[in-house]
């Protein structure tokens, strides 16, 4: 199968899907190409990532109908030429143009990954921040590059509120003490730290992003037979029911919300102090 580009017929693809292990392997590789850092922009999600996931699922169904091969797995990775970023997350300054960004774009992507009918492996071949880390955590497994990889939910450093849907995905994946550290300290994890705290499942010791993608593909081969019964989506819907319920909520974009709340709280405290002195 030739590489398929998304958006379809685009001269410069934002994402590509291929079968790097060959036709009939049913191991699909979805590469993000929203250079330079795979920011999860609304149209990137709508025009590339979601259609690519639909395409992979359709091809899986077709393979089952045609040859009875119902095995399958998906590897998601960042662009490979530079290999610097898996994903640098959201871009806050564009969100005001998309007031339903979470409901209609980003949360759809997270829900789609959480409930994908195949095992999904994030091949973290570069830096992975904020919304990008949340996408990796929405995959079933995470294989991480040893070198040139930092991971962080860094919203506390630039004053952005963590939306409830993202927090729900993090809560579904991370132990409470790790979640506290991830969200409240914006700790910048090395690959080895991420492994020790359960954020990733494996760290590939061989340097370079290609070794990480190769290991993720090998893991996909190990897991692909588990899709044959067709039960994975249903199991995931049960396992992640609380997170999926939160992701289904309409959560408007809020820019500067915490700061405005602090200002209101400050004024209320000043007024209360004045009343106490009367």
UniProtKB/TrEMBL annotation:
One GO CC term of this entry? Answer: peroxisome
SUPFAM superfamilies found in the cross-reference section: ClpP/crotonase
Which superkingdom, per the lineage?
Eukaryota
Cite the Pfam families for this sequence: ECH_1
- Spell out the InterPro entries in the cross-references: ClpP/crotonase-like_dom_sf (IPR029045), Enoyl-CoA_hydra/iso (IPR001753)
Record-level Gene Ontology MF annotations: delta(3)-delta(2)-enoyl-CoA isomerase activity
Would you kindly state one Gene Ontology biological process term found in this protein's UniProt entry? Answer: fatty acid beta-oxidation
Q: What is this protein called?
A: ClpP/crotonase
